[in-house]
Specification:
The chain is mostly beta strands and 146 residues long. The protein is built from no helices and 10 strands.
């Protein structure tokens, strides 16, 4: 996956500082008034993956939301993704979110993500951003006889 630094919400953001039950904003916001190359006129996708998997107490979940703003001060939640049980994340499948965000009827300039752990995390480094497509592992049947 090729990633544009200008389209990243988080790059090596440490989630151990996130307070339980309280939304922690991504380090970066994307400013859509600036020239950005989104490629062809397709919709874009949001991805969230972990270079260091989140670790917390049993039953810990992580909620991720896409927020938009006109002034970079007042934020409105555009989309809440379902909470993720952090034990379902693995090194081979480190993705918490791979989705196309909903569209809004209002014109907005800024976009960010928020991360809300249900309990304090003892580990967790996140990378998140916008891309035209996100990686996935696709298994195909064998094309040979063993």
């Amino acid at each position: 996956m090729i990633v544009d630094k200008l389209l990243l919400f988080s790059n090596k953001q440490d989630l151990t500082q996130a307070q339980a039950g309280s939304p922690t904003p991504s380090v970066n916001t994307v400013d859509f008034s600036q020239a950005r190359d989104f490629g062809p006129t397709e919709g874009f996708k949001v991805f969230v993956e972990f270079s260091s998997l989140p670790i917390g107490a049993a039953g810990t979940t992580l909620s991720i939301a896409v927020q938009i703003s006109i002034d970079n001060q007042n934020w409105t939640t555009l989309e809440d993704f379902p909470s993720i049980d952090i034990t379902t994340l693995t090194n081979s499948q480190p993705f918490a979110v791979r989705a196309k965000p909903a569209f809004s009827n209002m014109i907005y300039r800024y976009m960010r993500l928020t991360y809300t752990p249900s309990q304090t995390l003892s580990s967790g480094i996140v990378m998140a951003g916008i891309n035209l497509d996100v990686p996935s592992q696709q298994a195909y049947p064998k094309n040979y006889v063993a």
